[in-house]
Q: What sequence folds into this?
């Protein structure tokens, strides 16, 4: 495990990509975040974020600066501006001179200068202690738990790492089998091992409430859900882990994976700061074992997560830029606006192979054209590569992003500062947690690692051909939690005190929970229209870039029709989305005060001592 704060340990058996090889330095420039305030018909006052003084600039130059929205050489900027403004080559000299002027005025940032600026912003703090907690969420799958514990043992014994098995089993036989497997694992594991059953969890919740002064009913709802709600308690054990490891870093994963790690064929060691997680997709053959179709990664899985978790952007720039000169290659103007000097990696993720965990296959058609090129065969039976429902999906290298979508077989979480819980019940709990984290800590970073871990649910699911155009009412197409998460992502609040941000969020949630049905219906319909248009645009873009055979073209048409499908019972189905969501949101808002007290109390003690 990496504990040295002066270097990264890249332990995968890969050669760096060609982009990482030593090459002649290239000067690339980007516009910093800025605003222009018009002062007359020809000029404006330009204010660069965190800069002073403001400068007068012509509106024509401001327009050019707006188009300098990514790192490019001056020649690349010139061609990009000509293309966007539909200018002839006769304007090339004028554009070049304008770019030189913007550089002279300090209105374009050079890549190396930004790296230096970020590196110098590195806080003078010590490296965090070794990763101390590993949480496993399990329920009624003793065979899967046994396989995971075996792979954890094989990943490397660690006397510092405390293993917590959070057992949500409601079958006595499963709990008994789990206990036997855990005891066998504990006999060999050099660190502490704890098995928390539902009964132990219930007693622990009461003890935390009593010790912290939190309301026991509220805390019980956050950690156990509503007994009368049939929704699965996906978020319960994530919330429990946040309390058991309050003030520390930890990793958490489900029992339907192992620590056997694999890579895409063209994976590499490149490290880049990126606007979004850019993952590639590969199709696994149903005729061969999954682990024979991918190169195996020689990597300490938990150590790889730990070496990124909690790193600041300045530290990343200072260390990684010496190895990877293209660290900022993919940065755009929007990302530059969000990255702050205090930005830290709050979450680490890896890729997965096996079942993608989605109900519908239609997301595949929104992916990049290169991810569907393998399907462009004349044989219609090629569709079985999709229907088989076995994929490999990961980034090619390590990506540092502000994209907090947490779907992964393993997540690392930096819990040293207060994090808010997710909903205890229902799906998309990881998405909601990510949105809350991003709101609470603007500029929070996610490190997506290139290796993949398997995802193998007990039921080997397959899609059917009619899943491409399966009719669905709006309340089955729209997830209320997804809508709520996107709304939180859109909240605008200046950086500031964490307590103030929490108070703002609580007030907003209470307002949301009390909105009239007509108002919230309009929000959902607007959201549906936006997601429909974005999905169809992505599908059309992918289709236009492929030389697809007829059978695949027909699938594209089917998928688009499904996305645009009308719900004839729309007004009856809308309340099925917003009524339970409003109840859940209102109750969540009322729980935050008690959660904060409980987290702070847990932060001050070794929670193993509090176990009943």
A:
């Amino acid at each position: 495990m990496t504990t040295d704060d002066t270097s990264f340990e890249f332990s995968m058996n890969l050669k760096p990509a060609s982009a990482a090889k030593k090459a002649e330095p290239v000067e690339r420039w980007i516009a910093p975040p800025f605003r222009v305030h018009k002062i007359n018909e020809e000029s404006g006052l330009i204010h660069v974020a965190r800069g002073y003084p403001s400068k007068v600039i012509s509106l024509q130059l401001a327009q050019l600066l707006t188009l300098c929205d990514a790192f490019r050489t001056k020649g690349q900027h010139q061609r990009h501006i000509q293309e966007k403004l539909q200018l002839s080559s006769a304007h090339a000299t004028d554009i070049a001179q304008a770019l030189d002027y913007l550089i002279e005025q300090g209105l374009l940032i050079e890549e190396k200068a930004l790296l230096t600026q970020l590196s110098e912003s590195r806080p003078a703090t010590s490296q965090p202690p070794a990763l101390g907690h590993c949480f496993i969420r399990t329920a009624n799958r003793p065979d899967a738990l046994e396989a995971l514990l075996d792979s954890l043992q094989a990943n490397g014994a660690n006397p510092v790492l405390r293993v917590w098995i959070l057992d949500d089993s409601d079958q006595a036989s499963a709990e008994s089998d789990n206990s036997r497997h855990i005891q066998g694992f504990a006999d060999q594991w050099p660190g502490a091992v704890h098995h928390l059953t539902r009964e132990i969890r219930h007693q622990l919740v009461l003890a935390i409430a009593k010790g912290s002064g939190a309301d026991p009913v509220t805390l019980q709802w956050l950690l156990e859900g509503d007994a009368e709600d049939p929704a699965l308690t996906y978020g319960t054990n994530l919330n429990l882990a946040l309390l058991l490891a309050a003030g520390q870093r930890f990793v958490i994963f489900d029992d339907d994976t192992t620590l056997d790690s694999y890579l895409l064929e063209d994976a590499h060691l490149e490290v880049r700061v990126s606007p979004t997680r850019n993952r590639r997709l590969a199709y696994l053959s149903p005729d061969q074992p999954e682990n024979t179709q991918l190169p195996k990664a020689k990597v300490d899985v938990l150590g790889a997560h730990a070496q990124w978790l909690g790193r600041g952007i300045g530290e990343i720039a200072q260390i990684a830029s010496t190895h990877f000169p293209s660290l900022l290659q993919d940065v755009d103007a929007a990302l530059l606006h969000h990255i702050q000097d205090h930005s830290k990696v709050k979450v680490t993720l890896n890729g997965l192979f096996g079942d993608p965990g989605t109900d519908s296959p239609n997301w595949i058609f929104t992916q990049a054209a290169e991810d569907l090129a393998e399907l462009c065969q004349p044989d219609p039976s090629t569709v079985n590569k999709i229907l088989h429902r076995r994929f490999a999906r990961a980034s090619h290298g390590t990506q540092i992003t502000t994209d907090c979508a947490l779907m992964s077989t393993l997540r690392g979480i930096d819990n040293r500062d207060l994090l808010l819980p997710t909903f205890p019940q229902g799906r998309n709990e990881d998405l909601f947690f990510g949105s809350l984290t991003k709101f609470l800590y603007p500029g929070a970073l996610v490190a997506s690692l290139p290796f993949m871990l398997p995802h193998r649910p007990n039921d080997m699911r397959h899609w059917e051909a009619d899943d491409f155009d399966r009719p669905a009412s709006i309340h089955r197409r729209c997830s209320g939690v997804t809508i709520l998460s996107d709304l939180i992502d859109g909240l605008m609040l200046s950086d500031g005190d964490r307590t103030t941000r929490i108070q703002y969020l609580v007030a907003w949630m209470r307002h949301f929970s009390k909105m009239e049905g007509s108002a919230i219906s309009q929000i959902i319909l607007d959201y549906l229209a936006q997601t429909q248009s974005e999905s169809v645009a992505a599908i059309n873009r992918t289709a236009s870039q492929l030389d697809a055979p007829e059978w695949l073209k027909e699938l594209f048409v089917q998928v688009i029709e499904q996305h645009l499908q009308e719900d004839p019972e729309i007004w009856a189905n809308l309340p099925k989305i917003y009524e339970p969501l409003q109840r859940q949101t209102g109750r969540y808002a009322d729980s935050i005060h008690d959660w904060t007290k409980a987290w702070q109390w847990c932060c001050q003690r070794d929670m193993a001592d509090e176990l009943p």
